[in-house]
């Protein structure tokens, strides 16, 4: 009987030990996932779900160059939406930069665009000027967000959540 109890205790201890190790390994694997690395297009798609972009025009490489003086070969991906007319200030851009050393330079170029827009709308269209004044321009890792929109707060939250 004594041998059975010793054998049972040893087996129990080994079983508990194996289960504990298994749980530790599994919990380590199920912890936080590595941060995602979405394209600007994927972030743009998430933004599309929280704000109405139907009336906006989607920008291309020429528009990116014209508005911000940014060459498409300097960036990995981007989405750009602009107002359909000159009397609207709405503008949304998500840019994923290829080289992190260029991010501040690109942000500065976008800031110049915002300044120009602000000056042109200030006395002309106060409602649109207000949108420009409450714009969001931020960087996170290799991404830049510009949101000039009535939904700029939600766009910013979506951008942060995506990263």
List keywords for this structure.
163 residues; alpha+beta; 5-stranded antiparallel β-sheet; 6 helices; 5 strands
| Radius of gyration based on Cα positions | 26 Å
Helix content: 40-55%
List low-confidence stretches.
22-27, 29-35
Number of E strands: 5
Sequence of strands across the biggest β-sheet: 1-2-3-5-4
Helices and strands: which structural class?
alpha+beta
Coarse morphology: globular
Average predicted local confidence, pLDDT: 85
* Oligomer category: single chain
Distance between the termini: 62 Å
Main beta-sheet strand count, sense and barrel state: 5 strands, antiparallel
User: How many helical elements?
Assistant: 6
- Per DSSP, what share of the residues sits in E-state strands of 2 or more residues? 15-25%
Order of helices and strands: HHEHEEHHEEH
Could you please describe the fold and organization of this structure?
- Helix 4 packs antiparallel against helix 5 (126-133).
- A five-stranded antiparallel β-sheet has the order 1-2-3-5-4, with helices on both faces.
- With 163 residues, it is α+β, with helices and mostly antiparallel strands.
- It contains six helices and five strands.
- Mean pLDDT is 85; it is low at 22-27 and 29-35.
- The N and C termini lie far apart (62 Å).
- It is globular.
SSE order and pairing:
Elements: H1 2-29, H2 40-50, E1 57-58, H3 61-68, E2 75-82, E3 91-97, H4 103-122, H5 126-133, E4 136-140, E5 143-148, H6 152-162
Antiparallel strand pairs: 1-2, 2-3, 3-5, 4-5
Helix pairs in contact: 2-6, 4-5
């Amino acid at each position: 009987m004594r041998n059975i109890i010793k054998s049972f205790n040893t087996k129990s201890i080994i079983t508990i030990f194996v289960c504990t190790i298994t749980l530790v390994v599994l919990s380590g694997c199920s912890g936080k996932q590595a941060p995602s690395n979405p394209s600007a297009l994927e972030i743009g798609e998430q933004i599309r779900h929280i704000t109405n972009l139907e009336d906006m025009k989607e920008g291309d490489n020429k528009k990116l160059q014209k508005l911000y003086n940014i060459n498409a070969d300097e960036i990995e991906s981007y989405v750009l939406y602009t107002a359909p007319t000159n009397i609207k200030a709405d503008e949304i851009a998500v840019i994923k930069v290829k080289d992190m050393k260029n991010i501040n330079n690109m942000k500065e170029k976008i800031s110049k665009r915002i300044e120009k827009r602000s000056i042109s709308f200030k006395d002309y269209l106060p409602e649109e000027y207000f949108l420009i004044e409450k714009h969001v321009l931020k960087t996170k890792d290799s991404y830049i967000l510009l949101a000039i929109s009535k939904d700029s707060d939600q766009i910013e939250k979506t951008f942060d959540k995506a990263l």
